[in-house]
Please model this.
Amino acid sequence: MEENKAPENQSEDQTNPPSDAQANQNIDQNPEENQTESSALSDTPEFEAPHPFEEKARLDVRPVKHFYDAVKQEINRLVVGQDEMLELLVTAMLTGGHCLLEGLPGIAKTLTAKSLSKSIDVPFSRIQFTPDLMPTDVTGTSVFNLKSSEFNFKKGPIFSSIILIDEINRAPAKTQAALMEVMEEKQITYDGVTYPMVFPFFVIATQNPIEQEGTYALPEAQLDRFLFRIKMEYPSLNEEELILKRFERDFSMQQQGDVKAVVSSASLKEAQELIEQIYIKEELLKYIAAVVNNTRNNGDLHLGASPRASLAIMKCSKAFAALNGRDFVTPDDIKRVCIPILNHRVILSHEREMEGTTVEEVIKTILETVEVPR
Model:
């Protein structure tokens, strides 16, 4: 009987945990062992959440965020406010598109475009569109060389990396048409010879929504070449006060020289390649297609968006995801870019136009109507 009780008592001792006093005694007796255990715990890597959609290596999008933050910080040395416009400008550059800035005079359209060009180490040119401007004044023309007795092509101001076109609607249609090929295909064809543009190639055009006398409305085909139409608003009261304080002792705006090149074309290329790899699941691609298709079958719209709009939404939603530090697209990224991408690609019906409805209101209604994938 005693032999049978012995193992039972041993099992009880093994299962019962030691008291606090015994535990402290063991720690004091074996300090080296405890240090080894604590160091092993501290060396354990932190747990990383898996990719939300699939098991894959996470994409490091920090270079994209660094590019945007560096450019924004430099431009904010001179420009007050206009954060939304700046975000859209950088997004267009990161996706290889072009921007149309529309706003009243004096709200820093030209200043922001020039500051953006200064913050990036690339060539810059400015073209002032006027009614007497000819297409060859933009693209270039052949000049006779007396020494060689041949015509040589002299490149125009469009051969640059960042091109600011001031008041694009002041030039006639034939001059505006000179931009059609170069904006889409990034090349100029003259006298049967093709001249490619250098990287990057980014066009920023401005136009005034008022004073339409003597202007030429941009045709739909040319508007479709612009990735965004950015409608700029007046600054807020606080921003207006900051503008006055910043230039109180700088009437000649010498601060423009403070903006320096902080990023290069190589960093821009790296950011573009990263954005192409941003993950977007198939349900969100179907959501983009559904939104654009709704514009073509909507009673409030006379003309819907083209497939170029669908591609633009996909590209820009990827860019917005990267700017927010994510390697995957969310429905909010898509909604964020739809209005500036679609507001110049769709035309209101005559009934809605007479009622005073805006294109932006119709686009918001479409976004609320189309079911968002979960």
Observations:
- The first strand starts at residue 99 and ends at 102.
- Residues 1-50 have pLDDT under 50 and may be disordered.
- The domain at 279-374 is CATH 1.10.8.80 (Helicase, Ruva Protein; domain 3).
- The CA atoms of residues 213 and 283 lie 47 Å apart.
